[in-house]
Write the structure tokens for this entry.
Amino acid sequence: MRKKIVAGNWKMNTIVREGVALAAAVNTELKNIDLPENVKVIIAPPFTHIAFVEQVTDENKVTVAGQNCATEEEGAYTGEVAAKMLKGLGCSSVIIGHSERRTYYGETSEILVKKVYTALKNDLMPIFCCGEKLEERESNKHFEVVESQISEALFHLSKEDFSKIVIAYEPVWAIGTGVTASKEQAEEMHAFIRKTVSSHYGKETADNLTILYGGSVKPANAKEIFSMPNVDGGLIGGASLKADSFIDIVKAVL
Ligand code: 13P
């Protein structure tokens, strides 16, 4: 059965003390929820918080992800954090290619190829983000844009490696704006992504691929979006910064 995931991307929010309290609250709430085997909850705190957050979370309830990783394995790269270091802290996944990284830090497909490679090499599940800007949707280029983001960064992978990836579709115009894609818009793009993957890797790989939606998901709209057949959960920004709202979103995927 396809994995369903609700992942909280805290972005650059909270100081350690607040982050630990948030993680502990999420962990406590999750103890009251019977998560089916195929449902996973992930939180992605800032790097500085990870070691502390690991101490207050039970791995069988919630696992921890990095929000990014370096392109290189190790060495003289001042300020960077390697995939190996995330693994060493107990992370099981890493967000790669978030639109904020693409936009503000110039992350290109060539860079993302390296990040995906080093994540997989260090046994981290890449949560690979894609999504079009508003002007690209308005000029009807959204399918083309998402297809090239995926094919450029991922289609060099073997089928076996590709099957370890999760894709998050996050239309840039929906991130942090309060404007969510409609359930039809999300479903249409997710189905397109699955079809694109199917034509490259075959139907079985595409059917097993978890595709998350991200962009202004809140407790009020999560259930509707998650009800679509090709939407396998969400990547949550703002609403993951409050334990209650994040937990309500987790419940919406069940
Ligand atoms: P918001 O949920 O705040 O729109 O952010 C979505 C996102 O970018 C998650 O990675």
